[in-house]
Amino acid sequence: MTAPSITERTAYWQEAWSTGDTRWDAGEAAPALVDLLSTSADLPKGRALVPGCGSGYDALALAHAGYTVTALDLVDLAVFRFRELRQNKGLFSHQAEAHIADFFAYNEGPFSLIWDYTFLCAIPPSLRTAWAEQMARLIAPTGELVTLIFPIRPEDDAGPPFAMSPELVERLLSPYFTPKTMFPVPRSHPARQGREVLARWMPRNG
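RESULT FIELD:
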């Protein structure tokens, strides 16, 4: 299957934002990320990347935790919303900045931490191998990729969001990363409870 072009992908998400069809927007940072940042002192510090940032709740939570955050999205309306929220939360561009950019073409690494939540499940399945390859290119040798795997459900063709499983993500990442921890999270947004698994991955070249 031919991967959709950047123009096609941008048009899809631009229409969703333009029509207000942002059902993925939960209005706050992922509870699993909030818990991780408050309990895991061993997370690598420094630069963090959030692809497919949307409104940017997770990116701003990382900035509050001391990371210098780069957030990416294809849609200008998402970036505008991100900057509004950043101002409301008293943060500045040197702490967290969003860019209209294609993750698959982005080359401003390396990053100490990469956070993926509702990004892998939103891209066409034909881009999943490229997703894993790009994660490997962007992560620092001593960094971590953290994936909040969602939605956990049997595989089907419906999406986005497309069905995810820990086994699927591990197959994609196994050439480049080894799993550090993987567990169902105790706290999720209410509509997503029981359908999320948090996994931390270390690069094999680290």
